[in-house]
Amino acid sequence: MTASADTLGPPPTSVGVIGWLRKNLFSTWYNTALTLVSLWLIYTVVGQLLVWTFTTARWEVITANLRLFMVGPFPPEQVWRVWIVLCIVSVLMGLSASVYGGTMRTFAVWLAAAFATLIVLDLIAEQARPFADFARRVAEGGASQFWLALPGMVWLLVNLALLALGWSIGRGRAQWRTALILAWLGSFFVTVALLQGYGKDTWLPEIGTNLWGGLLLTFMLSVVSIVVSFPLGVLLALGRRSKLPAIKIFCILYIELVRGVPLVTILYMTQIMLPLFLPGELRIDNVARAMAAFTLFTAAYMAENVRGGLQAIPTGQIEAAHAVGLNDAQTTLLIVLPQALRMVIPAIVGLFISLFKDTTLATIVALLELLGVGRSVLAQSEFLGLQTEVYVFVAAIFFVFSYAMSFASYRVEEALGVGKR
Amino acid sequence: MIDVGMVSGIRDMIVAKDVHKWFDRLHVLRGVSLTVKSGEVVVMFGPSGSGKSTFIRTINRLEEHQRGTIIVDGIELSNDIRNIHAIRQEIGMVFQQFNLFPHLTVLQNITLAPMWVRRWSREQAEQAAMDLLRRVGIPEQAQKYPAQLSGGQQQRVAIARALAMQPKIMLFDEPTSALDPEMIKEVLDVMTQLAKSGMTMICVTHEMGFARAAANRMVFMDGGQLIEEGTPDQIFQNPQQDRTKLFLSQILH
Question: Does residue A143 surpass a pLDDT of 70?
Fold first, then answer.
């Protein structure tokens, strides 16, 4: 008896590792040559990179200035506020990981891994010194020094614990989904309030935004601009399709004007020209002006992305919504926008990623965000000539967060079945 | 002013008088007048481009008519948004391309309007939706998305969605034209059952079997005008107009 057609397996040379290698890397003589050349190139480049990373590079420029890179000129005795913010994020992240699962769980694992890595690195680099320092300061300054002098490693351990705590509390509580979104939004305002503080001699003295810096400032610029420009962009896109000519013309003018001007110009205008036009007593600080510039700029692009989604909705959808009795507002909110927005998720996330990276332009208006801190560190005499280390570090941080956004967008698309239904 | 119809419970649901409509300069409805009484099932047929779809779309204001009057259940269609809104709540419509909302499940498609327009509670709306899904024969599909259903199933969901608003009138705009042949019957069965239950219906369709089984009256349209109307027997056995005869001979091979 011979094997019938439906039990016949594929030929052994076409499957498995060898089959794959043969088919993709060594199918012809020039393919083989290309493969070998590529292997040699990868070996040399990656090899050099590894050698540089682990032997040549002087990473002490990073470790010595880590606080600067993270928070810039933020007063050191007030850095606990930033740690508290991170604690809030950790708890929410832990909760989200178990309540939502999926992508949030992946992110929580990444965050935990980041905390653990930092703890280990800290242990290797500093050993017990921070604890001795902590003990000395508390002994000298009493209880008031306790929170202020707490070593970073303790904060990291607390964050790791909070992450785990959030995760275990949130298990089996799918009903918290909506509440958790509100909590994330709320945490945004708590963060701003906590970092800013109020009054002069209070328990939480005001810290001007001119003292915000480093990764903290990069985050605040990006998050504020993203959170505000999103609804603004949606409104502009809807306005552009409005039947009322005044609204329509305003939206078109706004979108086209902003899109026709480079971001740098808008930054300069909000920084230098805005104060000239505003009355003297009305002062808006630098950071807020930069946030406004990024927000207004991004909103125009957001509007065009959303418009693309709106145009792709068939008129049949709107007719069906009207036919079952929904009014115009309900049709837009329940039928048109949900479909339009999920269609343009990739474009919107792309916009957010470029906004996140564009915040580095704030250095040119004298804000010390991550790249600005890098440049000021390089100006210190003991770290002259270490550009490579600093820029690689800054680039790595930008890459990690940009990739995280891109990864999240991909997973959200999958979950919503974009392109499938 | 009480007429006989009111006393016996039969009244005029749709009164269209001399309805005209232009697309730019193209005159697509040239004075259509039609009265449909409650419980009546009217089948409209005619060549493509004859204005039958446009006409039924003027009844719930998906298209605006530019001359003449349309009165639905005593409410005259005007530019007053409240009138349009009130009329749309009394009319259910089923489209050729189904037009289900692809981002919502079958159940959400059906409960959306009752919850947002009629302000029903979720429980009440879902219970009513499940009753309707049982009526159209697909309660087991409630949690699926439209793209996961066959064309016939999607159209039955669309019918359930329209019925969920408890309309007094149902409009069908070529409900079986986009379906594969083997799925036409399941949709027509639901429509026939609906017609037998006493729903007032206007159906634009070329399914002559359905017309024979369920219609009280047939209307032939051509060139934006009503050419001929009569009972199915009159139309099939003894059409009066040459254009009707020609068209019937073309579709009844």
Answer: no
Query: Strand locations in B122-199, DSSP E?
Result: 169-173
CA torsion, ordered A222, A301, A372, A90, to nearest 10 deg: 20
* Chain A residues closer than 8 Å to B97 by CB: 316
Answer whether A325 sits within 8 Å of B113, measured CB to CB. yes
Is-contact B32 B77, C-beta < 8 A? no
Contact B165, B132 (CB under 8 A): no
Give me B32's structure tokens: 């259509």
| Predicted local distance difference test score (pLDDT) of residue B80 | 85
> Within a 10 A sphere around the Cβ of A118, how many other Cβ atoms?
17
Contact B165 A324 (CB under 8 A): yes
Beta-carbon separation of A324 and B113 below 8 A:
yes
| Cα distances (Å, whole numbers) of residue B250 to A121, B92, B229 | 84, 31, 18
Q: pLDDT at position A144, please?
A: 62
CA distance B237 to chain A (A): 36
Q: Is pLDDT of B1 > 60?
A: no
Q: Residues of A near B (CB-CB distance < 8 A)?
A: 314, 316-317, 319-327, 330, 334-335, 338-339, 342, 417, 420-421
> Are residues B100 and B141 in contact, defined by beta-carbon separation less than 8 angstroms?
no
Identify all chain B residues contacting A342, using CB atoms and an 8 Å cutoff: 103
Enter the tokens of residue B173.
């705009």
Q: Which of residues 129-188 of B touch A (CB under 8 A)?
A: 145-148, 161-162, 164-165
Give me B67's structure tokens. Answer: 């001359």
Could you tell me the pLDDT band of residue A13, with boundaries at 50, 70 and 90?
Answer: low
Sorting pLDDT into bands at 50, 70 and 90, what band is A5? low
pTM of the full predicted structure?
0.82
The per-residue pLDDT for range B44-79, each reduced to its tens digit, is 999 998 999 999 999 999 999 999 999 999 889 988
**Residues B182 and B22: beta-carbon distance below 8 Å:** no
Confidence of residue A419 (pLDDT cuts 50, 70, 90): very low
Is B101 within 8 Å of B109 (Cβ atoms)?
A: yes
3-state helix, strand, coil in chain A (%, to 5): 80, 0, 20
DSSP letter assigned to residue A200 = S
Helix (H, G, I), strand (E, B) or coil at A46: helix
Q: Which of A240, A248, A261, A352 is nearest to A298 (CA)?
A: A352
